[in-house]
Structures are given as structure tokens and as C-alpha cells.
Amino acid sequence: MGEELHPLVCSGKLMHIRLLRVSFLHKLRFVDHIDFRSDTVTWPTVAMRKAMAEAAVGDDGYGEDPTVRELEELAAHLTGKEAAVLVSSGTMGNLIGILAHASRGEGAIVGLDAHTFRSEAGGISAFGGVVPQPLSTDSEGRMDLIAIEQAISPDEPYYPRSRLILLENSYGAKNGYPIETAYFGDVKEIADRHGLVVHLDGARLFNAVTALGIEAHELTQYVDSVSFCLSKGLCAPVGSVICGSSEFTHQARRARLALGGSMRQAGIIAAPGLIALNEMVGRLSEDHSNARLLAEGVADIPGVVIDLSAIKTNIVFFQIEVDNGPNSSEIAARLWEQERILIGINGPNTFRAVTHYWVGSEDVDRLVLGLRDILAGWRRK
Ligand SMILES: *Cc1c(COP(=O)(O)O)cnc(C)c1O
Fold this sequence. Notes:
The chain is an alpha/beta fold. The chain is built from 15 helices and 15 strands. It folds into three domains: about 1-30, no CATH class; about 30-45 and about 285-380, Aspartate Aminotransferase, domain 1, CATH 3.90.1150.10; about 50-280, 3-Layer(aba) Sandwich (Aspartate Aminotransferase, domain 2), CATH 3.40.640.10. The protein has a seven-stranded mixed beta sheet with strand order 4-10-9-8-7-5-6, with helices on both faces. It has a four-stranded antiparallel beta sheet with strand order 11-12-15-14, with helices on one face. α3 (about 65-80) packs parallel to α12, α4 crosses α11 (about 245-260) and α13 (about 285-300) packs parallel to α15 (about 360-380). It is globular and about 65 Å long. The site of pyridoxal-5'-phosphate has 13 residues, from α4.
């Protein structure tokens, strides 16, 4: 393998690093910090950067980009749907999916802590006039089936007629819990009985199915549409795909255009997406083992509260409960100063750590030891 010039951002500066072996780069990290805040921080791999440079492209506005078409066909195949549409983000995928299904004034039953309800800037209401009908979820992200059925509002003048049930898997707010297919079957049965459709926010669909030990289509057979991210644990720099029937994707393309999301030579984005699906799904279990290691490591630290049974994919929430102890921001600041580690802060005592391609088990050890050290130091004061 020849010498190659590789652009990398280091301490905020763009640098060009001369590399002798491409294979060598695969495991080498050029960062001066470790980032556990999210799996969205993942850089594209060398193979992805190369594929981007070499991608065959065309005008996707005319449906003429061969790489985009290949990605959309693969996504449709994997989810067992007729067709798929490449979009710029998971948020856009969900918004387009919901706009394609529901009209203004129609209701969407959704978890109170679901990403589509809590973290998408109210887009379904702002742009689609869709009325959220939120329900609480259990510790693994499920809305109660009886509650769902009771929340369905009838087609009478007073009510925002329910049109949609929004599901999420893995469930971000509940440690990325992978919800089992049986639940999806039950929800689909309710939806069918009442003439509703089901949309899945599968931002981390492949984490969920990896943890469940199934193929994606075994889960997505129970939903009418699914959106998944290429740019989280799968390492692509940009992009999500939304899949469903040809009729649905026809509507979705119209919604994508209306929202300004129709792209041109998007093969540049689709090329790393193909690598994400072909080569990165198979290694997600490594991230799950590292999350397990992290969870078990912090569980041993005095003052840490964590529910180990909830950790099944790559997201680990935990609390610090130390009398007169530091809050999560103070601890995070110390982790940064002492270890150059970034971690997610999810409340005054709560952390979120996410494992991904660019953190290894040695980084997990460093986080655990660092945290132990910081908390012990505080206790001695
Ligand atoms: C990240 C995420 C999204 C949104 O994806 P973006 O690409 O960041 O817009 C949607 N749903 C869930 C569950 C997510 O984790």
C-alpha cells in the first residue's frame, strides 16, 4: 500500500498527515482526546473517504445518481421494503416520513421521551401540523399497549384524528434499549385494527437488531416506514435513509423536495453510506461489549448508581450519588482536564457515555480509572 495524504482535524486545526500504510490507519487514532458524548462524533473511516473521492455521481434530483440508487436499493433490501430515499439526517428522515403519512390536524401517538417528540424541534407540528399524542414509556422505552389503544382518537369532529404510531428502536432515552420484535407485532396489530400506520425512528436500528440477534427486516416487517442513520455508530459522515412502500417513498420524495432536502451529486454521501451498511454493521457488537465493560467498570465505583440489566447496546446512562459531592458538570470538567475525556451530561447527577468505532476498550479503562480517581479525590477533601 502506498503513501497517502490524509486530512484530519487535530485540536481544532486541519492537518495533513502522511501515512505509510492504509491498513495501519485503520486502528490508529490521531486525536488528542477521547469522546464518549455520542456516536455522532464518529469520523468517516479511510475507506469511506476514499470511496467518497471515487464515487460515481449524477444528478439525484433527476434520479440519476448511480451511487445513491445503489444505496437506496440496499437499504430497501435490508429492511424488506419496496423502496428507500436518502436524506440528510435522521431528523429529516422522521419529519419526511411523518409528513408523508399524516395530514394537518392528524394525531401521532408517540413516547414522551421519544426523539421525534422531544428532540426534533417540534418539526412535525411546525411543518406538518401533526398533533403529538404523547404517552409515557416504561424503563425499556415501550408505551403500554392498552394506553396506546385508549389514546387513539376517533374520527369525530372534536378530535385530532389519530393517524400514526411512532416507535423508536433502539430507544435512546432508555440506554438505547433494543425493544423485542413481539412488541412491534403487538403495536402493528393495534394499528391495523384502527387503520393507523406505524413509523419507526430507527436511528440506531442496526444497534437494536445486532443486540436482538436478528436481521433488520425481521423487525421492520411490523412497520410501514423506517428511518435509520448512517452517521452514528456506522461512521458515515452524513445521511439517513427512509424506507417503505413505493407509494410511501413517492410521497416522501415530494416532502423531501418541499423541505429543501433534495440533493444533486449525492453519490458523495451515498458512497460512505454503502460502506456503513456493508462493512460497519457487523462490528457494532464490539461497541456493545465496550458499553458493557464501561457499565460494569463504573458500577464498581463507590457512589455510582447504574442499572446494569438495562445496558444492551452502546449507550450507558449512570448517576453519581455522593453526599455533598460534585455535580456532573464539575466531574466532567475534571475528566476533561485530567484525562482529555469528553462525556455526556444529562442532568445534575446523570451522565451518558456512548461507545463507538473510535473508542476502544483501553479508552473505556481510562474513563473508569479517571472517574474512580476523581471521585476518590473529592471524597478525601
Ligand atoms: C440521532 C437520532 C435522531 C436524529 O438523527 P440526526 O441525524 O441527528 O438528525 C433521531 N432519532 C434518534 C433516536 C436518534 O438517536
